[in-house]
């Protein structure tokens, strides 16, 4: 029998809470480089690809073989910038949370690409073999505005000192492949009492989070 929330409901223009943890609850981010590589994978898949004329580049005698190989890899690299918007994320030592908007039904392809790419890096670095994550990623459909807002707060409060998209929400950092405006548009930029930062300060409301619980 399939685990709860391992079977995804594919809906276009819908929001999903996504989660996965290390197999046997093991650490999946052991140092800063690991966090950076995972974020780099997100950037690769969620940033629009450059318009590359591969035959012209390969025929360019001024480019080194390494530059041509990099261009070839980029040309064939899968990309989900037109089908997945990442609203927020947080990374902990043994698990991660993502909140996405699926524009087209490619969430499964996106998550498989992300997981495969990171596991290859991790296993190569730490000289290990086999799965890193605890089975198939878990995903839950977010079907109300209240759930969406409270979930973003839950994700950001989960990771105050580790990598998260909170700086994008507080205006401290701009990242092109993170889309905070879909949530920030519910809040005021001029009235501090109605700001997202004030909303964070109110703490978690687990009555909303329990409606979109992910089975560990």
Automatic annotation (TrEMBL):
Molecular functions per Gene Ontology: DNA binding; transposase activity
Single GO biological process annotation from the record: DNA transposition
Entries under PANTHER family matching the protein: TRANSPOSASE IS200-LIKE DOMAIN-CONTAINING PROTEIN (PTHR34322:SF2), TRANSPOSASE, Y1_TNP DOMAIN-CONTAINING (PTHR34322)
Upper classification of the organism: Bacteria, Candidatus Woeseibacteriota
Segments forming domain Transposase IS200-like: 11-158
Transmembrane segments: none
Designated name of the protein: Transposase IS200-like domain-containing protein
UniProt-listed Pfam families: Y1_Tnp (PF01797)
């Amino acid at each position: 029998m399939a685990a709860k929330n391992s079977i995804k409901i594919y809906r276009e223009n819908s929001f999903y809470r996504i989660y996965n943890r290390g197999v046997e609850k093991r650490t999946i981010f052991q140092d800063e480089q690991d966090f950076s590589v995972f974020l780099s994978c997100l950037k690769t898949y969620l940033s629009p690809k450059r318009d590359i004329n591969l035959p012209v580049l390969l025929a360019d005698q001024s480019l080194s073989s390494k530059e041509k190989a990099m261009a070839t890899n980029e040309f064939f690299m899968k990309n989900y910038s037109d089908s997945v918007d990442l609203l927020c994320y947080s990374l902990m030592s043994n698990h991660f949370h993502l909140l996405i908007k699926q524009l087209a039904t490619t969430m499964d392809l996106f998550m498989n690409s992300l997981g495969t790419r990171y596991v290859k890096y991790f296993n190569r670095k730490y000289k290990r073999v086999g799965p890193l994550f605890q089975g198939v990623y878990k995903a839950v459909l977010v079907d109300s505005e209240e759930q969406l807002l409270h979930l973003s707060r839950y994700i950001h409060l989960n990771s105050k000192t580790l990598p998260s998209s909170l700086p994008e929400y507080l205006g401290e950092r701009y990242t092109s492949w993170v889309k905070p405006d879909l949530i920030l548009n519910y809040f005021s930029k001029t009235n501090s009492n109605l700001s997202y930062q004030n909303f964070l300060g109110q703490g978690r409301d687990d009555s909303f989070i329990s409606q979109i619980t992910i089975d560990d």
